[in-house]
Amino acid sequence: MVLVGLTSVVASLKVEEFQKNYKIAINERQKRSPKEDCSNSYNDCDPDSPYRPIDGTCNNLQYPTWGSAGECFLRFLSPSYSGYGDYRRSVKGGSLPEVRQVCLNIFRKKPSNQEAERASLLMTIYGQTVAHDMSQAIQEEVNIKCCEPEIYNKHCHPIKVKSDDPFFSKYNITCLDFHRSVECKACQTRNREQINMETAPLDSSIVYGSDDVRAKNVRANDGTGRLKADYTGQGELLPGGKLPSDGFCPEFHDSICFKAGDSRVNQHTTLSIFHMLFMREHNRLAFSLKKLNPHWEEERLYQEARRINIAQRQCEIYKEYLPVLLGPYNMNRFDLTLKNGPEGSKYNPTLRMGTWSEFTIAVYRLHSMVAKKIGFTSREFKNLYANPTLIRTGQTNNLLIGVSQVPSASYDHYYADDLTNYLYNWIGLKMIFGASNHYGASIVEESFNINPTMLAPSFLFIVILVASVTNWRTETRVPYGSDLCAVDMQRGRDHGLPAYVYLVSFCSEGQVNITSFDDLAPLVMTPESVDLLRQNYK
């Protein structure tokens, strides 16, 4: 709802006016990298090197730390906090409405007929790989349970849930964990800022990593230039295990989780599949380069395959993904279309390389486009969270076919309940050895797609016995999770995003100034949307 309105404002302007306002926003504070503010110099760039450094430095030789991992998120507008970094208050001085309640009132359960006209669910999931390639705001002290009543921690800002909540009240849940993003304590920052742990350029950092430790961990280093892989009957899989900073791998799950260039690889199965495909493409390229150039050594094979893989992915994004997301009109209007021929698309060193907080925390949160149905048996999206077992049991092709055929959900203000009630609904894993028939039945259903009630008790016992001997594991999921809609809103407040009306004014170069709810319709949103906002905000 909000983004649709903001898009309509931008579309009504001349491109030159928006670009002029964009340049004004890049003030002197934003032009200087936080690293440059502290060190004043960076002299490690090789202007003749054809390869990108892993950490994103040296993309711009004049400003070598622009867009590098560990830089602060940039901003179009100054952050809006109460004091230095506390959550901002409402215009009348009180607290803003609780995010879970706003989600229940506005971002209601998605109607079954709300489907995208031109996009499959595969396109939406691919978009997540683009987001992960350029941004990651890591959280403070994630091992702390923010909802414990005896715990008060400045890094926590838990999400309150009413006792009569239509879903969570069934499970006596009155609080959802929320950890604030790590503060970017760079020199000369006047407000609370946040660290971006990813590189800003589209450099396939989700494949290769954004720091030397992860980059070394995903490389085979066997003279072939390849990335690590486990070779199984299912083909090349991502290597098993995880690094200390990896998330989305529940307790006792380490041996079947995957390891990749990004710590979020195990977030859901379809995301893991994309990571696997990018790894396979690198290894295919390295193998071909080795055949063509048998005299090349490890480092050159790796770097050349990486370079080609990055270029291919950039072409995918600009030639296939963005035209579907934005449409040909906006691609041409903002000069985003790749140019063919000798001229090509030229690098512009005057553009500020970086990731903008308003973009990654608000504009590119396309979570309403996640569909409930995934086109694969009776499973739904909530069944994919932290579930590498589906890949290890040979379901990759079925999942890819499913999400390719199922439409994406619409780009609107509805969220599927897989995101608002069941986000990351796991509590860890249990060993099958000594398990009850409940766990044996879940293995049968998960691995063989057979209704366990159709099996004879003796066969079910054999399955349990085989599982215990072969050290199989199955997951036990609780019937609830977190709420991504509430998390999205809370993250916006955590990052101090200014009120929507200020962004409208910025994008319209002051031509549109919202002073009341009546000013919103019909220019930036529908009357129905305005009524919903009026009921929840002052």
UniProtKB/TrEMBL annotation:
> What InterPro entries does its record include?
Haem_peroxidase_animal (IPR019791), Haem_peroxidase_sf (IPR010255), Haem_peroxidase_sf_animal (IPR037120)
Q: What is its main location?
A: secreted
Record has Metal-binding as a keyword: yes
Task: List where in the cell it is found.
Answer: Secreted
Kindly give the Pfam families that the UniProt entry links to this protein.
An_peroxidase (PF03098)
* Record keywords, A-Z: Glycoprotein, Heme, Iron, Metal-binding, Oxidoreductase, Peroxidase, Secreted
Q: Where does heme b bind?
A: 367
One Gene Ontology molecular-function label = peroxidase activity
Highest rank taxon of the organism: Eukaryota
Which GO biological process entries does UniProt record here? response to oxidative stress
KW Thylakoid (keyword) present: no
Its protein name is Chorion peroxidase
The source organism is: Caerostris extrusa
